[in-house]
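lol forgot to send this yesterday, sorry. struct tokens for the thing we talked abt
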């Protein structure tokens, strides 16, 4: 490729940091102006944790983090994410307090935070964003923050409990780190 062609190709491309790794996409080859972030993440990069259910911003199943805040990836154009930091559920560590809290709240029966699990990645990422901004939310604040996410299995009580448990884990880890001999 000629030098000026390469420069022009870069001009037509975008860069998005996904789960800690910068990715380059060329407009025309990899995506069009109307490609959604959800499509790019799922179909081009294989991050299938996020789900596309309603595809119109009404269910929260496609929630990911953009610069630490929750966004509905079906409602964001990939080109709008240019230069931003995107995190999907695959980018959360296994010992993330929210991931742990949901896993621990998964016993079948009343009180579980997940049955089929379809909505779970969206709830986890919405909860993660809430706790990034407010590590000690009240139950009312949890309900309000999760208000845009739908669980067809009706696990709302268990989900809210899992988020409060995640909040308690964050506080405990912070206290442990601050204690003499704790992790810095
Ligand atoms: S799939 Fe994006 S909000 Fe429902
Ligand atoms: S656990 Fe099935 S949709 Fe929420």
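and heres what i got for the seq, position by position
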């Amino acid at each position: 490729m000629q030098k000026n062609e390469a420069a022009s190709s870069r001009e037509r491309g975008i860069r998005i940091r996904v789960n800690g790794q910068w990715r380059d996409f060329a407009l025309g080859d990899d995506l069009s102006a109307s490609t959604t972030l959800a499509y790019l993440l799922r179909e081009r990069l294989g991050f299938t944790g996020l789900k596309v259910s309603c595809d119109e911003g009404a269910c929260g199943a496609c929630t990911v983090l953009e610069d630490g805040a929750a966004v509905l990836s079906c409602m964001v154009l990939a080109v709008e994410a240019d230069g931003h930091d995107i995190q999907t559920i695959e980018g959360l560590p296994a010992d993330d307090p929210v991931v742990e809290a949901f896993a621990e709240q998964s016993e079948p029966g009343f009180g579980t935070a997940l049955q089929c699990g379809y909505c779970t990645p969206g709830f986890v990422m919405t909860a993660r964003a809430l706790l990034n901004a407010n590590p000690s939310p009240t139950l009312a604040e949890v309900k309000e923050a999760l208000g845009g996410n739908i669980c067809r299995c009706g696990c709302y009580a268990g989900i809210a409990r899992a988020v409060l448990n995640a909040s308690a884990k964050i506080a405990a880890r912070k206290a442990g780190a601050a204690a003499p001999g704790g992790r810095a």
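The beta strands are 13-18, 21-26, 63-66, 69-72, 85-87. anyway ping me if u want another try
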